[in-house]
Amino acid sequence: QVQLVESGGGLVQAGGSLRLSCAASGSISGLNVMSWYRQAPGKLRERVADITAGGTTNYADSVKGRFTISRDNAKSTMWLQMNSLKPEDTAVYYCRALTDRFYWGQGTQVTVSS
């Protein structure tokens, strides 16, 4: 079992920044791809960004150039630096990790006011 705990969400004005964290614990040997997803009210959950254990990253078009995903394998922690936030970034942000299967965190709320 793997436990994922997100933190760092909050309320910010448009144009502002937030940094989300995802701490993994438990059976994390072989922690592979880690990802950020988000789900806005009334919408499907969507992928925001991925990062492999080797550091290769991939972003959704909607966040390219504004968000940066990173991880520290020694600390089993992943971050999402979010800059130039827009009201449409408002959502619950979830951390997902792959070991023997996919695991999800409980989510952290990000609200961007206009």
List descriptors.
114 residues; mainly beta; seven-stranded mixed beta sheet; four-stranded antiparallel beta sheet; 11 strands; globular
Describe this entry's structure for a reader:
- Helices cover 0% and strands 55% of the residues.
- It has no helices and eleven strands.
- It is globular and about 40 Å long.
- The model has no long low-confidence stretch (mean pLDDT 96).
Beta content comes to over 45%
Helix vs. strand class: mainly beta
- The amount of helix comes to under 10%
The value of Rg in angstroms is: 13 Å
Give me the count of strands.
11
Shape: globular
Low-confidence stretches: none
Summarize the helix and strand pattern as letters. Answer: EEEEEEEEEEE
- What about the largest sheet? 7 strands, mixed
Integer average pLDDT: 96
Number of discrete helical segments: 0
Termini Cα gap:
40 Å
Note the topology.
Layout: E1 2-7, E2 10-13, E3 18-26, E4 34-39, E5 46-51, E6 57-59, E7 67-72, E8 77-82, E9 91-98, E10 102-104, E11 108-113
Parallel strand pairs: 2-11
Antiparallel strand pairs: 1-3, 3-8, 4-5, 4-9, 5-6, 7-8, 9-10, 9-11
